[in-house]
Structure formats: structure tokens, C-alpha cells
């Protein structure tokens, strides 16, 4: 077996390079993953552009699928996985001993343990991100087997895109049979949200976007959106009113990243409605009409990342092949083009409007 592997390292703002790292020795408690595909997240573009975490030097990449190259006996027993299995890995694994971890909220671990933005590649054994040929899987890394019949482009969306949406809309938003859900923003998370809302039983799913989202609107339709609103042509509140005969939505889901959209969400839900936001607003404050929140007893719920239950549900959806989720991945780059991939995901490449960018480190 090879002694070293290649990874793309973010050294500072807009500064990436390919570096070689030693491939770690695996003991009975841990494992090594050969990365087959890794998604480029909006968070990655923020870090590259300098508005996110600054744990440098860093191997980015927290949305990934791969095959187990090596696994210790204890880790194999805990995870139920063996060498050669294809798995997806949750982005956070937590320390296991802090209060949030003990309460099962390892996504809120105070020690911030996870892939792609929390642990620098200066920390041995270095491979803490999936813009790399291999990723290190410590004892606490949470693995889920996924069928090899599923296209890699769909498998790569399991945890971060679909696992997130299932948790945000289903488990946190409480979408249930017959609900009307309005999704603000037609990016990967909004599109994943259509699937999560439909699977949770929503009767009507409305999604908003802009002129530039033409391709995304086509995808939204394929995934089952009932109504698509171009907010550059029709005001979203007026549209939701028209579609629901004045009843408005049960749940609004803001994944637009726009403070203006989030501010508008209080106009979109009915009395007692719920607003869920996983939105990252780049440090900007959102002006919310709290009088409406109070009088209408609206609940605003923050949502961040996936967990065991939501990933398990996402795997069932992905394995069912009911939705053409692989079509969301419109651009795939090789590892040596990782920087280009991040730029493409940040719409920095003229004429390119990817829905989801991924990297295949074998290329
Ligand atoms: Zn992500
Ligand atoms: Zn912890």
C-alpha cells in the first residue's frame, strides 16, 4: 500500500495547494477511508473567501462518500462495517464526554470535532477533511453503509444535503401530513428540502428563487415541487397567499442565505406557523417583525447539520432511488482542480451556475 497520499490544503484566504501526507497506521479502534467523492459546501466557499472558520492550514471537505480501505477489529464491530464497504460519514463526531455529546447532541460538541472545518491538518494524523485521497476515521467517526448501486453523485448528498433537510424540515420543522411548506431559496439545500418535505407528508411544496435559477427550477419540478415562485416576477407573500387561498404556509424554510428573505418569512406563515432557518447570513443581522411573531405565535427555529436519525432516514430515501438526486451534482472536478471547484461553487467562474459541485479525488 502507498505510504503517502495527496490532499488539497487551504493555507489561508484564497490560497490552496496540493500537499502530500503520510497515510496513518490503523489500530484496532480506527479506520481509513478511500474518498470516492466529496461535495463542495457553501461553507467551503465562505472559508476560501475568508468569511468562515480560520483553522488553517485545513483540508476542507465534510460531505463525502468512500470505501473502507482498512478497519480495526473494534471499529469494525462498533460500526458494523468491513473493508471494501461503501460508506457515508457524518460531518461531526464529537468528543463523547462534554455535556452536549452526553445529551446526544454531538453536532453541538464544545470541542468542535468533525471533518473539513474544525480540525487543522497540522493535527496528527492530518487527514481531517475529504479534499483528499484518504480520510482518517477515529473511533467516534459515525459511518453509515450505503448501497453500491446508488450513483456516487447521489450518495455524496446523503448526509449533508438530504440528511440535513430531513432533520431541518422533518425533525426540527415538524412537517407532517397535509402541510404546506414554503422553501426560500432554490440551492442544493432548498432542492433537498423538497424531497424531505414530500417524504414527511407535505401536501403542497412551494419553492422560491430568482431569474438566475432557471436550471434549478427545472430540477425543483423534477423533485416534486408543486409551485415555483420567481421572486423577481412575483412577490413571495402575494404568491403564497394566492396558492393557499389566503391560508398561508404551515412552515417556511429559509435556506436562501439572504437576510431579506428571512425577514420576509414572517409574512409567509399562518398563525401558529413555524419558520426554520439553517441559513448562514455571513454575520449580517436580520430585521424580524417581532410584533407579527408575537401576535401570530410564530415559532422561529434554528437548525444546524444532520444527526444519526436524519442520516438513517436520508439513506432510505437515497437507496429507494425514488428521486433523481444525482442530477443535483452538475460539476465534478479532480483533486488537483480543488481550488477551481471551490471557485465554481462560489459562482466565481463566468457563465457557470452549478447546483452542486463535487470533487473526485481519484482524478
Ligand atoms: Zn456542508
Ligand atoms: Zn463533545
TrEMBL record:
Domain of life of the source: Bacteria
InterPro entries associated with the record: ADH-like_C, ADH-like_N, GroES-like_sf, NAD(P)-bd_dom_sf, Zn_alcohol_dh
Segments forming domain Alcohol dehydrogenase-like C-terminal: 190-319
Keywords noted in UniProt: Oxidoreductase
Record-linked Gene3D superfamilies: Medium-chain alcohol dehydrogenases, catalytic domain, NAD(P)-binding Rossmann-like Domain
Transmembrane segments: none
Record bears the keyword Oxidoreductase: yes
Location of the Alcohol dehydrogenase-like N-terminal domain: 28-145
MF GO annotations: oxidoreductase activity
Keyword field contains Oxidoreductase: yes
PANTHER family (UniProt xref): L-THREONINE 3-DEHYDROGENASE (PTHR43401)
Descriptive protein name: Alcohol dehydrogenase catalytic domain-containing protein
UniProt source species: Hominibacterium faecale
Taxonomy of the source species: Bacteria, Bacillati, Bacillota, Clostridia, Peptostreptococcales
Amino acid at each position: 500500500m502507498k505510504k503517502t497520499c495527496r490532499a488539497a490544503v487551504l493555507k489561508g484566504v484564497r490560497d490552496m495547494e496540493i500537499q502530500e501526507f503520510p497515510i496513518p497506521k490503523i489500530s484496532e479502534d480506527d479506520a481509513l477511508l478511500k474518498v470516492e467523492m466529496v461535495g463542495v459546501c457553501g461553507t467551503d466557499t465562505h472559508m476560501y473567501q475568508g468569511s468562515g472558520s480560520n483553522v488553517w492550514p485545513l483540508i476542507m471537505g465534510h460531505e463525502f462518500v468512500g470505501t473502507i480501505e482498512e478497519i480495526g477489529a473494534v471499529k469494525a464491530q462498533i460500526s458494523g462495517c468491513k473493508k471494501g464497504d461503501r460508506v457515508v460519514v457524518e460531518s461531526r463526531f464529537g468528543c463523547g464526554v462534554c455535556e452536549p455529546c452526553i445529551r446526544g447532541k454531538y453536532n453541538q460538541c464544545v470541542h468542535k470535532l468533525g471533518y473539513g472545518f474544525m480540525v487543522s491538518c497540522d493535527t496528527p494524523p492530518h487527514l481531517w477533511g475529504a479534499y483528499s485521497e484518504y480520510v482518517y476515521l477515529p473511533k467516534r467517526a459515525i459511518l453509515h453503509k450505503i448501497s453500491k448501486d446508488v450513483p456516487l453523485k447521489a450518495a455524496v448528498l446523503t448526509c449533508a444535503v438530504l440528511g440535513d433537510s430531513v432533520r431541518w424540515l422533518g425533525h426540527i420543522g415538524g412537517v407532517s401530513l397535509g402541510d404546506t411548506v414554503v422553501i426560500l431559496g432554490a440551492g442544493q439545500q432548498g432542492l433537498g428540502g423538497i424531497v424531505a418535505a414530500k417524504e414527511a407528508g407535505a401536501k403542497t411544496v412551494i419553492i422560491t428563487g430568482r431569474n438566475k435559477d432557471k436550471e434549478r427550477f427545472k430540477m425543483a419540478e423534477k423533485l416534486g415541487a408543486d409551485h415555483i415562485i420567481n421572486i423577481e416576477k412575483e412577490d413571495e407573500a402575494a404568491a403564497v397567499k394566492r396558492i393557499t387561498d389566503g391560508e398561508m404556509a404551515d412552515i417556511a424554510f429559509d435556506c436562501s442565505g439572504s437576510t431579506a428573505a428571512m425577514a420576509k418569512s414572517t409574512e409567509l406563515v399562518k398563525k401558529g406557523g413555524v419558520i426554520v432557518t439553517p441559513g448562514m447570513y455571513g454575520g449580517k443581522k436580520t430585521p424580524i417583525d417581532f410584533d407579527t411573531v408575537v401576535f401570530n405565535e410564530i415559532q422561529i427555529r434554528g437548525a444546524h447539520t444532520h444527526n444519526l436519525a436524519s442520516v438513517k432516514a436520508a439513506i432510505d430515501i437515497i437507496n429507494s432511488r425514488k428521486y433523481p438526486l444525482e442530477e443535483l451534482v452538475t460539476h465534478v472536478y479532480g483533486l488537483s482542480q480543488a481550488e477551481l471547484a471551490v471557485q465554481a461553487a462560489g459562482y466565481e467562474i463566468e457563465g457557470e451556475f452549478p447546483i452542486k459541485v463535487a470533487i473526485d479525488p481519484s482524478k
